[in-house]
Amino acid sequence: MDPRPDHDQLYQIAEGQAGYFTAKQARGAGFSAERLTNTTKAGKFLRMAPGVYRLTRFPGSPFEDLFVACLRVGPHAVISHESALAVYQLTDVLPGEIHLIVPRTASRRHPGLRLHTNRLRPEDITMREGLPVTTPVRTIADVAASGLSQDLVRQAVREAIRRGLVNRGELLAQASRRGGRTARLIEDALGGELI
């Protein structure tokens, strides 16, 4: 017979993830596959995607698709590129797929997700709405490098500065570090900024 599952342990895991958790995390808290299924049928968990659940006592998140994507891909996934722009509400772009930066060793088989294997420094990552997301300055540099239109990069730069999420110095340092198209687009966007 299974040991009794630790509901408190699972709650603590899920609490830090806006109520979401993986089947693997549930197993770590003592939930067998059968018990996980039965608890879901009893209405205490909601199955969001294969292997991803939400405690019903937590409300759904407007970023539910991003939470599910991060949990599906693994613990080191970070929301990035156009998806991060959407989290920060810096442009009008509506991403057609979810963008994540993952370690080079991560599985690349996730339909509907756009996985990038760029290197991230700890200072490139922050938490926003309970999600691991690239910082605004890193996000702007990533979308500039990946081919986002000049108008949308300009909109992102100006909105991020207006809202105090970045400053000119941070953007110029990122532009200098990246060079090429990224530097040209960021410098162009900053050309008209007085802040």
Protein described:
This protein is α+β, with helices and mostly antiparallel strands. 46% of the residues lie in helices and 15% in strands. The strands form three sheets. The protein has a three-stranded antiparallel sheet, with helices on both faces. It has a three-stranded mixed sheet with strand order 4-5-6. A two-stranded antiparallel sheet has the order 7-8. The radius of gyration is 19 Å and the shape is elongated.
Question: What distance lies between the first and last C-alpha atoms, to the nearest angstrom?
Answer: 65 Å
H and E order: HEHHEEHEHEEEEHHHH
Which percent bin holds the helix content? 40-55%
Tally of DSSP β-strands? 8
Low-confidence stretches: none
Radius of gyration: 19 Å
Spatially, the strands of the biggest sheet line up as 1-3-2
Q: What's the pLDDT, averaged over the residues?
A: 91
Please outline the major beta sheet.
Answer: 3 strands, antiparallel
> Structural class, judged by helices and strands?
alpha+beta
Shape: elongated
**Content of β-strand:** 15-25%
Oligomer: single chain
Number of helices: 9
What key phrases describe this protein's structure?
195 residues, alpha+beta, three-stranded antiparallel β-sheet, three-stranded mixed β-sheet, 9 helices, 46% helix, elongated
Per-chain topology:
Layout: H1 7-15, E1 20-22, H2 23-28, H3 33-41, E2 45-49, E3 52-55, H4 64-73, E4 78-79, H5 81-88, E5 98-101, E6 113-116, E7 125-128, E8 131-134, H6 136-146, H7 150-162, H8 168-178, H9 180-191
Describe what is shown at a glance.
The protein is α+β, with helices and mostly antiparallel strands and about 200 residues long. It has helices at about 5-15, 25-30, 35-40, 65-75, 80-90, 135-145, 150-160, 170-180, 180-190; strands spanning about 20, 45-50, 50-55, 80, 100, 115, 125-130, 130-135.
